[in-house]
Amino acid sequence: xxxxxxxxxxxxxxxxxxxxxxxxxxxxxxxxxxxxxxxxxxxxxxxxxxxxxxxxxxxxxxxxxxxxxxxxxxxxxxxxxxxxxxxxxxxxxxxxxxxxxxxxxxxxxxxxxxxxxxxxxxxxxxxxxxxxxxxxxxxxxxxxxxxxxxxxxxxxxxxxxxxxxxxxxxxxxxxxxxxxxxxxxxxxxxxxxxxxxxxxxxxxxxxxxxxxxxxxxxxxxxxxxxxxxxxxxxxxxxxxxxxxxxxxxxxxxxxxxxxxxxxxxxxxxxxxxxxxxxxxxxxxxxxxxxxxxxxxxxxxxxxxxxxxxxxxxxxxx
Length: 317
Prior knowledge:
Pfam families: DDAH_eukar. The chain has about 325 residues and is of the alpha/beta class. It has one domain (about 35-315): L-arginine/glycine Amidinotransferase, Chain A, CATH 3.75.10.10. About 25% of the residues lie in helices and about 20% in strands. The protein has eight helices and 15 strands. The strands form five sheets. A three-stranded mixed beta sheet has the order 2-1-15. It has a three-stranded mixed beta sheet with strand order 3-4-5, sandwiched between helices. Strands 6-7-8 form a three-stranded mixed beta sheet, with helices on both faces. About 45% of the residues are buried.
């Protein structure tokens, strides 16, 4: 006679009890990283990253690094840089610094080129010039120390510099190709932006005579943009006009090219900080309702860049 077999009653393996927090990275930013993020060129500026000129500007070959032939007054350059930082602070902007940098990179003062800030964090660039490559490592270190997320570092054969991109609004970015941004760099940046919800990436071909957008075009408010008309493609401005922007044509090629009349920084919509020495560009902005502050950055301009070039935005709005 067979004995009745006992059936083993084995407990079921329990299901997952830790469920995901279904929020976006942008929504989590303040809680886990800090008050960072940019999706505008004009919303109230709240935090920036700068590189105060260090040992790298004390001894270098001007021709090798594309500086002007006139020698740089190092201490004056530092005082002018400090004056810019002071104006930012007076307008409620938190100013952070890249404390460490290679001593053979005098262009490192131009921080805009080394990163592009997004709503989710920074894209670390890969400069086009051999004379600048490697600066981005120290921007990355400064951002990591601050707790700013790094969402991508341009890699492979990609080249891209931060001034090759310009926010139009949260869903729209102008992205340029030229000697400082190739197709690979463009595609890497476009991929990140579209993943973040950017739906319109406007391609801008940089002219042979210019390397960055901010030397040719800059927004002063949510509906006013100043441009060097002969150098900005029609298709780019057509998009801006359709979005409600009034296009102001810089009245002086000399001011655009030599004293950086388009290379200003919006402190808030309708309030900009502009390099001294651009009376015609300044007057045109003021005639169109833009309040303009000016600051002397003549020594910094010997490196062929100005206010927008030295300022990496970390937080707007």
